[in-house]
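Help needed: design a sequence for this.
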């Protein structure tokens, strides 16, 4: 069916891009994270989260009787630190 190496590569790359479009997290993965980490994850991955991923995050926060508004300042600080490292270099802020 896909005889040429170029065609095989294109099919594989297309499949990888399709699968990479949505990110999903399990309750087990989320339950081992801090609320701050979960909120940072939701903030940073928002465009890539699948509906199931969003639902899992909200369910874990509800289980903890918490929400990301309680961690907005920490999430903003982490994002600012991330952007600084990405812009000016990682050695300045490990």
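Sure. Designed sequence:
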């Amino acid at each position: 069916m896909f005889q040429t190496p170029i065609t095989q590569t294109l099919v594989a790359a297309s499949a990888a891009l399709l699968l990479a479009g949505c990110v999903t997290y399990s309750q087990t993965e989320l339950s081992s994270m801090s609320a701050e980490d979960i909120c940072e994850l939701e903030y940073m991955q928002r465009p890539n989260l699948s509906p199931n991923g969003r639902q899992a995050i909200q369910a874990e926060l509800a289980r903890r009787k918490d929400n990301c508004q309680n961690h907005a300042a920490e999430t903003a600080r982490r994002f600012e630190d991330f952007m600084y490292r990405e812009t000016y270099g990682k050695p300045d802020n490990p």
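Residues 22-92 form one domain.
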